[in-house]
Amino acid sequence: MRDAAKNQKPMPYERYQKLTGNRRCELIDGVVYDLAAPSKLHQAASMLLGNKLFAHLASKPCRPYSAPYDVVFNGEDDADPTLQPDLLVLCKGQPLPMVVVEILSFSERKRRSVKMEIYRKYGVPEYWELNPDAGTMTLYALENGQYVRKNENSSVFHSPALGFEIDAEAFYDEVEDHLENS
């Protein structure tokens, strides 16, 4: 991916918008990547987590949003990385998301580390990674400019930024129940 990007001219967000229209895609290192439609499992995990976040944040100055939602980072050299996390939490008065959630799918795994690096570079406090196929949730918190994994050896997922806690095993049981009943 980076080799292809070397030959690309930087692309500001305005040009990206004109070029892509309403397509679901992301802009990384000057290259536009189309995003595949999410699977039923991916959608179930996203909807369920989004609902739980919505309920948890109801009395707080933060709100969850789901893809497609462009998160535009002001880059150098007129390059504005533009990502569409599966879920994100925006808090009143904050220019960046407090939390971004990426739900891993086969097509996304290749860009996972690149996207995580962009979130880190621009200072997103928490990066959450869900892998529905493996039944895992991983939280990375920004500490001294680096992401540090916070839920090592634990099925309980706790977000310091949001004061949100969830049991990964119980969550994926709910996802499976949803899928079995649809």
SSE map:
Blueprint: H1 2-6, H2 13-20, E1 25-28, E2 31-34, H3 40-56, E3 62-66, E4 71-72, E5 82-83, E6 87-91, E7 99-103, H4 112-121, E8 126-131, E9 136-143, E10 146-149, E11 156-159, E12 164-167, H5 168-180
Parallel strand pairs: 7-8
Antiparallel strand pairs: 1-2, 3-6, 4-5, 6-7, 8-9, 9-10, 11-12
Helix pairs in contact: 3-5
Structural notes for this entry:
The chain is 29% helix and 29% strand. The chain is an alpha+beta fold and 182 residues long. The protein has a single domain, classed as tt1808, chain A, CATH 3.90.1570.10. Strands 3-6-7-8-9-10 form a six-stranded mixed beta sheet, with helices on both faces. Strands 1-2 form a two-stranded antiparallel ribbon. The protein is globular.
Name some characteristics of this structure:
182 residues; tt1808, chain A; six-stranded mixed sheet; 29% helix; globular
What does this entry show, briefly?
With 182 residues, the protein is an alpha+beta fold.
What is the tally of helical segments? 5
Large-scale geometry: globular
Please count the beta strands (DSSP E, at least 2 residues each): 12
Examine the secondary-structure arrangement and name the CATH architecture: Alpha-Beta Complex
Overall residue-averaged pLDDT value: 84
Unreliable spans: 1-7
Radius of gyration: 16 Å
N-to-C series of helices and strands = HHEEHEEEEEHEEEEEH
CATH topology, what is it called? Answer: tt1808, chain A
Numbering strands along the chain, what is their spatial order in the largest sheet? 3-6-7-8-9-10
Can you tell me the CATH superfamily?
tt1808, chain A
Structural class: alpha+beta
Note the gap between the termini. Answer: 38 Å
Strand content bin: 25-35%
